[in-house]
Design goal:
- With about 210 residues, the protein is of the alpha/beta class.
- About 40% of the residues lie in helices and about 20% in strands.
- It contains 10 helices and 7 strands.
- It has a 7-stranded mixed sheet, sandwiched between helices.
- β3 and β4 form a beta hairpin.
- α1 packs antiparallel against α2 and α4 runs parallel beside α6.
- The chain is globular.
- The mean pLDDT is about 95.
Amino acid sequence: MIKLCVFDFDSTLMDGETIDILAKAYGVGDAVRSITQRTMMGELDFFESLHQRVALLKGMPCEEVLAISANLPLMPGSFELIEFLKSKNISIVVFSGGFHEGIDATMERLKFDLGFANYLHHKDGKLTGLVGGEMMFSNSKGLMLKRLKSFLNLKTDEVMCVGDGANDLAMFEQSGLKIAFCAKAVLRANASVCIDTKDLKEVIKAIP
């Protein structure tokens, strides 16, 4: 029986990549998107690419960042899937290599239980181009899930994960049911289930 479900955020619960959306609004969309795509395919080190992308946002007004983050587009079926998981008393946690600015606002909308991500550093009302937080490395999600399992006294087969990119591999290693959602090839190869329909309600069918 599944007791914990861990979601990736960008391109999983949220329809798109937060940093790409911010970058487009700031006029550096093409440069950031190119780095994001290569990172999610496993071609670039996550830590280095995160710093490269956030550096391109230097000078962006915090007010604009928060306004955009409060209205990120959610993936079709997200509300229904969260409601289903709650009906089964399954705890819901989000691990994001993106930012608290996005997942915290979405937490209020979707009502998941807990979220871990990074913070965009700011000073005098503008982004400094620096970033720090809980999900900085390619193995961060795996390390955090290992800790959660120990803290909650959960067995691996009581945990499920849903993700789409290379930085979700580490949490897949700590999970029993591994769901690749509209995912990159590197993650699909390590999944229990692959879902290619862009609708999170499809995940319900994979839950025992």
